[in-house]
Amino acid sequence: MGVLNKCYLRFEKAFWPGDVDWLEHVPGTGPAWTQWVSLVRAAGLPVLLGFNAAQQGRDLEALGDTAIVASAMQSLRTIFGTQIPGPLDYQITRWGSDPFALGAYSFNALGAKPAMRDDLAAPLGARVFFAGEATMRHDFSSAHGALLSGRRAAAQLLQLRSR
User: pLDDT confidence of 162, banded at 50, 70, 90?
Assistant: First the structure.
């Protein structure tokens, strides 16, 4: 499983360009908040969504919410200046620590074969069906893979019921 943790920061109003959806920043040192998504155009909300993946994402999971928000704000203040306001609210994911997920998305590890995903998708008899992006040979690591796998499992169930 791969880790892609998110930190949503809601502000009173947007201080970043309203016509920009993706913000990219490559820091010289410090926190690796390199990608930000603005939800202004998509949702009409003054929210920035920051991403941290791989080891940086795992390392952040050990920090408290206050430290994570401070780290994110340090990055934003590097980009937009020290006078930007603090957030009104936040939401943080910790996918690697979630005992039911243990990660954010599946990936093909070294030595993995496409048939392994088919094995994950195989029903147990006529009672238990599996869905989720990890069960998809072509659309893994994606929300649409999760959706398509759910449709596949539903179709398998309906096919058995129609017999």
Answer: confident
